[in-house]
Amino acid sequence: MLKDDTPRSSGETPVTERVLYADGLLSVTAGAAPGYPVVTLAGEVDCTNSPTLARVLREAGRVGGRLVIDLTRLSFIDVSGARVLFGLVREGSATVSEVPAQMRRLLAMLHLTI
Question: How far is the first Cα of the chain from the last one, in angstroms, to the nearest whole number?
Answer without folding.
Answer: 30
